[in-house]
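pinging the channel bc i need a second pair of eyes. not urgent but kinda urgent?? the chain im working w is below, pasted from the shared doc
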Amino acid sequence: MLLRKLVVLGITLCSFSAFNVMSDTVSLEYNSFYNPLKRVNKGSYPNVELAFSVPKSDNCKIISGNITTESQSFPLTYTQEQRIYIPFNEDLKSNRGLINIEVEGDSSQCGIAMQVRAREALSEYRNNELQLVLNDMNGLLDSLQGFPMKYFRKPLSGLTFEFANNKPIIMTLNGETQQINEHFTLGSEKIASLIHLTFSEKPSVVSPWVN
């Protein structure tokens, strides 16, 4: 079950309730994920998505996972970085599906993170492409109020770009070139006036920024 929720910069953290220090399977109700997934899949937000993950640490490593109902079982897809892919499925809601995650370590230190991010991160943007991403993020966050975004709703200040490799990145913004680190923020005013933006490497994540 989900014990508590904490909202920070568009991320919802839900702590697990088990306390086995070796390994344990934690079961989360699919209904908890259904409503936010519905907002993305039924809304007009083609440029953004919801990403769920189990923050990785020595005390929290995914061993396996599946999605079950009373009569069926499906594999849970997850990455090495512990991002988990939860499908949008009416049958899982009506059949009281469970997301089962087996973790190694102290599962009381684990949780589920939910983040709004760009559906696709690019190494080059032109004109209003980033403005469309920012608009969709604002729209999606507005629609998520009550899950429990009503405790967090401040107009986004811009976008954060994250890069996987811990090395300098060359960025060119409207003809001006500079070196940036693995985290870079671009304010809404600059996004509105953007003509051309390039990075020497494609960002791994583009997410909301609140100043």
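so The helical segments are 31-42, 90-94, 129-143, 188-192. and The longest helix spans residues 129-143. — does that match what u expected or am i reading it wrong
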